[in-house]
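As promised in the previous annual report, we have extended the structural survey to additional targets. Below is the entry for Gamma-glutamyl-hercynylcysteine sulfoxide hydrolase.
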Amino acid sequence: MCRHLAYTGPAVALGELVVEPAHGLYRQSWAPRRQRHGTVNADGFGVGWYAEDDPVPARYRRAGPIWADPGLTDLARVVRSGALLAAVRDATLPSADGEAAAAPFAAGPWLFSHNGSVSGWPGSLAAPAGTLPAEELLSLAARSDSALVWALLLHRLRAGDELGQALADTVAEVAREAPASRLNLLVTDGARIAATAWGDSLWYRADPGPRSVAVASEPYDDDPRWREVPDRTLVTATRDDVLLTPLKEPSA
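The corresponding structure token record, generated without further manual editing, is:
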């Protein structure tokens, strides 16, 4: 598994959300409190953020553990943003993908992360992969289940599907082909956040003033405003509103 976080609200230093909290992603990389599968998130990390008046996010990703990169600590101290998506990647089997396999994945205005795994990978997603144009398959960011799930989602987003609907339909498609998958997905365009709770923990925190929202695998502090998301639920959020929508099990 992995751990991830998305935020939109007043501009803050990246470190205020990722590094400094007592139970933030930095610490979750070796001591997560609510992770149900796996214990050490050391095979890469990434932070994506949005600059003011620029819809295309920047990213900083590395293949190693977040605690071993002093550059991230320095960067997170001075870079400020009103929207970000960050993730730490669970220890996995060796591969040649390096930082290309580390979330967030990105295209256009979107950032994406997957907390979970696709059962029966790679054979289980042969049918959905066959629906993608060849150029989209050849441009996969990495040879991982998360990269293919991202390609399936991105295909819907580029076709004009709304953020939450695209996410829900992607989860339904993958779960139908690989029923035992864990599909906690997280995507943002800088203004909106959409996420799914499907097999692991998911929480959100909405702050009324100044208005902001964070959606995360687990709370990064002990603030009582954190709320747990029920399993099989779609979360769609802006800094003004959070909507929870039950997700149905896909039909055979």
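The chain is about 25% helix and 30% strand. The mean pLDDT is 93. These points will be discussed at the next consortium meeting with the crystallography subgroup.
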